[in-house]
Amino acid sequence: MRKFVFQLESVLEYRQNMEDHEKNLLGRAVQKALAEEQSLDKLSLKRQQHLTACKSSEVNLTFIHQQEVHLQYIEAKINQSQEKLIEAKKKVKIHKRSLVDASKKRKMIEKIREKRLQEYRRDLAKEEQGILDEAGIAAYCRNNKG
Predict the structure, then answer these.
(1) pLDDT tens digit string along 20-74?
(2) Could you tell me if residue 42 is inside a domain?
(3) Exposure class string for 76-103: b at 16+ Cβ within 10 A, else e
(4) pTM
């Protein structure tokens, strides 16, 4: 009996590799977005702590000015971090779409493979049935001769 050979097996493997690659890219993008989110949280906490420290300290014009400058620096860092987070989330969306596309392409080839495998099994069953029929007819003819 002949072995099942899928002509598009190399295409299926390629599509699987592309899907795996997209999964890796998505994983890295998600990790980067989480890191940016943690960075933003740390900066927000730092700003809150700074504001709390300013309220409890003595009032001095120089001190107030230094605190204002420092607060502006923290705000600028927060804005930068927010922009980085937005970009990271955009990349996550892009990689999700790419992964979905790669997955659809792989599944399309897998459906073709399954269809061809069913056809192969059906043909194989017909072939086996034909051999059994021939053997049955031969046995019947031998038994009826004698």
Answers:
(1) 999 999 999 999 999 999 999 999 998 888 878 777 666 677 777 888 898 899 9
(2) yes
(3) ebbeebeebbeebbebbeebeebbeebb
(4) 0.73
